[in-house]
Predict the 3D structure of the following.
Amino acid sequence: MIAIIDYDAGNIKSVEKAVIKLGYDCVITRDKEVLKKADKLILPGVGAFGDAMERLNEYGLKDVIKELVVDEGKPLLGICLGLQLLFESSDENPGVEGLGLLKGKIVRLPEGDDRKIPHMGWNSLEFPKKSVLFKKVVKGSYVYFVHSYYLKAEDEKIVAATTEYGATIHAAVEWGNIYATQFHPEKSSSVGLRILRNFLEA
């Protein structure tokens, strides 16, 4: 069973639909006991870093996520804001602590050259290393992004995919049992479903 962590994130239902389409049992929950029983966890998200961390704290989910992912080794996939929350902090809301599961900075996309922010649209991926998430996904595949902030990982060994949008964006990470994408696999057509399937089958 796949548990989608419920902290009132906007893209929860679309993630649920994609998981069900791939043939997996799925539950949207913030119940600790249900999360404990899940085979894998998904942390979705759209919106502001600070608001999201406030809700995770309010619902007691920050400690639950750390316990299940760090102490018990349960696989976790962060999506969009869900990727950013895995890190220590974000320039979007200075002073707000993230989950701190991985090290790196969340910084604002650079303006200029008629680039629109937020970045909304399809960008192609490059793969600096072999990874579980991108098995059977060809270099240059396009996926769908919606974001104003992006990850600069402290250790590039965790970076599984990059894209360019005025800067080199660390578009996906993979480290041990932690996986995350800045883009939305649930909105990225057959390529996105392949990426989701790779996580669910891992």
Remarks:
- The chain has one domain: 2-201.
- Residues 189-201 form the longest helix (13 residues).
